[in-house]
Amino acid sequence: MVNRPGSVRALLLTVAAAVLLTGCTEAAPEAAPPGATQSPSSPSPSPSPTPSPTVTPTPSTAAERADAVRLWYEFGGGTAMTSLIGETVKARAGRPTEEFDSVTADFEALFEALRTARLFGTIPDAQAQTAWAAALENLEAGAQQVLASVSGTTVILSPQESGQMWAGWATFDKGVSSLKATGTRLDRAFGLKPASDPWKQN
Predict the structure, then answer these.
(1) What's the pTM value of the predicted model, to 2 decimals?
(2) Number of domains in the chain
């Protein structure tokens, strides 16, 4: 086959034109659609530093406890305690002084005062609450034991019944001691006490 010079030159020009067109196509930026504005690219914004949280001073544990105890006392707890003390004093008035004395057992008002006192929940102070819980438990248990030893409201007890009755009063006395300890704790630690001494009946 004989190569013609004119054909070779035409082929070279065709190849060169194709290379130039390819280079122009790669270098040209992509045209934006009609009506669109092409904004220059901007670097990604760096994240702003997280602000430090504002530290709010909080009351000390002792201050929080004192405030909680005050709220418990002023919003019904103190009134319930005073009422319970009054009924405790009245209940002890029926306690015999001699082993075979007649016994008057009437604890209905005391039980009602105990139910009311429990409605106010726990005292938010460990020492006061320990004494308070012991007072409620022993006053009720002692009164129930005394009631179990008698068959009526006013009776002469047998020696066996008398022994059971005195055991009940001993438990009741533990409740009295715990009730007084509760009042002492509230007074000395938090300055909370009734206007007059409920243990002194007029």
Answers:
(1) 0.68
(2) 1
